[in-house]
Amino acid sequence: MIKRIYERPDAHDGYRALIDRLWPRGVSRRRAALDAWLVELAPSDALRTWFRHDPKRWAEFRRRYRAELRVQSEALDALRHRAERMRVTLLTATREPRINHAVAVRALLLKAPRPRHRGPLS
Predict the structure, then answer these.
(1) How many Å apart are CA 47 and CA 98, to the nearest integer?
(2) Torsion-angle region of 37 (φ positive above 0: left; ψ -120 to 50: alpha; else: beta)
(3) Cβ neighbours for 50, distance < 8 A, ≥ 6 positions apart
């Protein structure tokens, strides 16, 4: 599930993970009721600035963001593993509900992980 951090926490949210690089304005840590702040899963400042939630750049943003997330495969795998066991709510401050990095992360979490190649005898 994806929610704006400004929405009230709910008992059905499960594990609440903020995936923004910057702390959202006007939200106290107590009010956020986070289980984790996963800064490493946020897009880089350069990518976020380039994208600016422009619908024409959405496909290219997702491609570039997936490339950035390859470096963070351990963090993404850990979140995927958690999502297999319980509900995970991805939190973001963005106002754009359809084209944002949380949508891209959710799609990756729902996608089956690729098996890791361990060599010819594995």
Answers:
(1) 17
(2) beta
(3) 57, 61
Q: How far apart are CA 1 and CA 17, in angstroms?
A: 11
Report the distance separating Cα 119 and Cα 48, nearest Å. 37
Of the pLDDT bands very low, low, confident and very high (cuts 50, 70, 90), residue 97 is: confident
CB 113 within 8 A of CB 25: no
Q: pTM for this structure?
A: 0.88
* pLDDT-derived band at 122, boundaries 50, 70, 90: very low
Q: Name the band, by pLDDT with cuts 50, 70 and 90, for residue 84.
A: very high
Tracing tokens 């990756």 back to the chain, one arrives at 108
Cα(87)–Cα(35) distance, integer angstroms: 12
The encoded tokens of residue 77 equal 């795998």
